[in-house]
Specification:
Blueprint (H helix, E strand, L loop, with lengths): L15 H53 L12 H37 L5 H8 L4 H21 L4 H24 L7 E2 L8 H10 L8 E3 L1 H12 L3 E6 L6 H9 L11 E4 L2 H4 L4 H5 L2 E4 L13 H21 L3 E4 L21 H16 L4 E9 L26 E4 L7 H8 L7 H20 L21 H6 L1
Parallel strand pairs: 2-8, 3-6, 3-7, 4-5, 4-6
Antiparallel strand pairs: 1-5, 7-8
Helix pairs in contact: 2-5, 3-4, 4-5, 5-6, 6-8, 11-12, 12-14, 13-14
């Protein structure tokens, strides 16, 4: 039987209640699904947050455990001979590099100074240069230049232009020497050797002092005694000159006045120098050109109480080195037993200062030690009339940087005959019948040498000053004139 389709009106449709229920179920199902998705999303986010939190906590706990656990410090590997050698080499090289760097800087500064000095040709230029010195030396330098120029004008018979030109040339060299000491001060060892390079301090001092000597009046006394002394030195024996001391320039005269007759004699001399001439800026360049035994004089050893101990140690070291040199032989040593420069008395008279017995006792003791080893030492009284060329201040000064003045003047030196300082000879000259006690012997030895120096001094003191030629005393000479005759 053929089934026919039902008409629409006859189709069975859900009722309103069933529809609302269906819709409600549908909505509920949809809502449940959404809620599940939300819950799953929340759960997923919470999970991710939880995982991140756990990871952070884990890392934090790891850091805490690591920081609270003891740190294992690896021991430094033991130094091998190779690493020790490399370390020592580096330590040695560092000061050398610094010295090299300082030398380069100093070289550049000196070249700049040379360029500046090329433009200096008058008093104004020298004053500008002086303005670069430490304040306490500026006035001293300017006054010294004025004094020097004035005295050269006397030398050149009033020719101020010629005097200024010579003074400027000499002081340019002096400025270079001072600049080097300001930039890199020299430290004197107990035994100092003349510095001739890279700057010739010896030549500088000779030119400076030599320009102030009136050679027409100057004299060398006891010229034949110089022959004897030089022969003894050439034979490998020692010669010690016990001298009075009158000016800061005294170390220059022996060479300036004997080079023509006894070449090399004065230059080979080693001077016993006090601490002031190696510490004062105005003195140091002149001292650097000499051969020195550096010792602290009794007059100034307590000037700075804190330095007394160090000064005493240096004195002991210097004495030991003197002893060694005397044992080697062939030494010429100049020492001023007075311990300082001669000063004029209140009435203007000038005589050598009395000699310190301890200074002579020390030298005779060192000579005995050298003699025990087979090296003989000869002693000579030596007189110097050099006061006026660079006169000292009227009294002793503790502070460095004293005022300096100079004079164009005649100067005299004289060497007496050798004096025997053995106890027997001293006793015989004293006319003593019994042997002298140790202290008595020291006092009498100092007196006899001092008397010999004073006696010789009276024969040369008249040559100082300027004017007509001073008549030669018996046994005296002017070697520089004889050499050109």
């Amino acid at each position: 039987m053929m089934h026919l389709a039902r008409p629409i009106g006859s189709l069975a449709l859900p009722s309103a209640r069933s529809s609302s229920v269906a819709l409600s179920r549908s909505a509920s199902s949809s809502s449940s699904s959404s809620m599940m998705r939300i819950r799953r999303s929340k759960n997923s986010s919470s999970l991710r947050i939880a995982r991140a939190r756990d990871a952070t906590a884990s890392r934090f706990n790891t850091v805490v455990r690591a920081s609270s656990s003891p740190v294992e410090v690896k021991e430094k590997p033991a130094e091998t001979k190779k690493t020790k050698a490399a370390t020592k080499k580096a330590e040695v090289a560092a000061p050398k590099r610094r010295r090299k760097r300082d030398m380069v800087k100093s070289f550049i500064k000196m070249r700049i100074l040379d360029l500046i000095l090329l433009t200096v040709n008058d008093e104004k230029g020298m004053n500008k240069i002086a303005g670069r010195f430490p304040t306490k030396y500026q006035t001293t330098f300017i006054e010294l230049f004025d004094s020097y120029r004035t005295q050269l004008a006397i030398k050149h018979s009033g020719d101020n232009e010629k005097a200024l030109k010579e003074a400027v040339q000499i002081f340019k060299v002096l400025v270079r020497a001072y600049a080097r000491q300001l930039d890199n001060p020299h430290e004197f060892a107990s035994t100092h050797y003349s510095v001739r390079s890279p700057f010739d301090y010896y030549y500088m001092a000779q030119a400076y002092v030599g320009a102030l000597i009136d050679y027409d009046r100057s004299i060398v006394g006891g010229i034949k005694n110089f022959d004897t002394a030089k022969a003894q030195i050439d034979a490998g024996e020692n010669v010690v000159l016990f001298a009075n001391h009158q000016s800061e320039a005294d170390a220059a005269f022996l060479t300036l006045m004997t080079e023509a007759s006894h070449p090399g004699f004065g230059y080979s001399c080693r001077y016993v120098a006090g601490d002031r001439v190696v510490n004062d800026l105005m003195c140091k360049p002149f001292s650097m050109g000499r051969n020195l035994f550096c010792i602290n004089s009794k007059k100034h050893i307590n000037d700075v109480p804190e330095l007394r101990s160090a000064k005493m140690k240096q004195n002991i070291k210097t004495v030991k080195e003197m002893e060694q040199k005397l044992k080697e032989g062939g030494q010429l040593i100049w020492i001023a037993p007075h311990g300082g420069r001669d000063r004029r008395a209140a009435d203007g008279t000038l005589v050598p200062g009395e000699f310190d017995k301890d200074a002579l006792a020390l030298m005779t003791k060192l000579a005995l030690k050298a003699g025990a080893g087979g090296t003989k030492t000869h002693f000579y009284p030596f007189s110097m009339a050099t006061y006026d060329l660079m006169p000292p201040p009227s009294g002793l000064e503790k502070s460095l940087g004293e005022k300096r003045v100079v004079n164009y003047t005649g100067c005299g030196i004289a060497l007496a005959e050798e004096i025997d300082l053995s106890p027997e000879a001293v006793k015989a000259r004293a006319g003593a019948k019994a042997d002298l006690e140790k202290d008595e012997l020291a006092v009498e030895t100092a007196k006899q040498v001092y008397d010999a120096v004073c006696k010789l001094y009276t024969t040369i003191e008249g040559c100082t000053g300027t004017g007509s030629e001073f008549p030669l005393p018996e046994g005296a000479a002017r070697p520089w004139k004889d050499a050109t005759a």
